[in-house]
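Replying to the earlier thread about multi-chain prediction with a worked example.

Input:
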Amino acid sequence: MGRVPCCDKNGLKKGPWTPEEDLKLTNYIQFHGPGNWRSLPKNAGLKRCGKSCRLRWTNYLRPDIKRGRFSLEEEDIIIQLHSILGNKWSAIASRLPGRTDNEIKNYWNTHIRKRLLRMGIDPVTHTPRLDLLDMSSILRSVFGNPSLLNMQGLLRAQALMNQGLLKLASTASLLSTINNDENPNLASHNYVQNQVTTPPSLDSAQFQFQMPTTQTNNVEVFSGTVANLSCSSSPSGDENLVLQQNQVGLSGNHDALVHSLNNANQNMECDSVLPTPVSSPNRLNSSSNYVRSGTDEERDSFFSDLFEFEIPESLDDIADIFL
DNA sequence: AACGTCCTCAACCGCTGTAGA
DNA sequence: ATCTACAGCGGTTGAGGACGT
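Result:
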């Protein structure tokens, strides 16, 4: 015997809600309170199924819903929580007062996800991926400003770019390898997610290591903040997510990292994965530090800070061209 | 102005988890 | 242990507005 439908579809309205329906639902809930969604439509005089009423209330009519564009701080929180929780929209929403899971999910899919892709960051694993990097937009920004054009520099950049990008790619690949070596069945964000469920603490993941260049023998430092998050248990035992300013080595396992680096035979040496001060402020607790801004350029810049990647010295020439 | 395409987001669908009988 | 009702979740859809040609 199959499950009975949540409501009788016959004669029930679907689609956008009218102001009159909103008023009926709001009035009813203000008087009787939410809940008992199956009987609510009938009692409220609505030709809707209970599920539709519940969704309309929780996603739109609820008085505590915050409307309007997401602030940079909210986007920051969403990205960091998503790196830990994955597509657990309700869990993310529970930490963003006034925002619904549906709203966050939509915003992620239509804005944040695309922004990360544009920045060459995999929105699923939250790791840099060169194949996602939108070089065309970078080049457009250069060619769109003739004052930045320097053919000689561009030609030099091409030679450097190939080596620099290859190294960056191997770095990203290696990071992925390290994660998968330790957790072969898990994507990196899932790995972090697992650690969330094993309190009391998780620190992740400022990674920083050095590799000598084959060309100049100078030391290049790649560093980036994967996430500045830690988790702790509240006295009640509930999982309590705390965002902190400090950060530690990749996945917190120095030996594994060194081992992987050695095995990778990448001509790289591990300098340090121990905690180092992070230059970026803790945006979660410093709302006054940030002026809200609405342009995509400003938001791109903001998220570039979130995923900090220092430009290696050997790529300085390229930076000179672009900046 | 007309048309086509893209983008956004409210709403829906199908499924799972849970409580109670 | 099983069944049912219900709430909630995540993925998907489609209407309508924005934008480009």
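The two ends of chain A are 67 Å apart (CA to CA).

Feel free to reuse this layout for your own posts.
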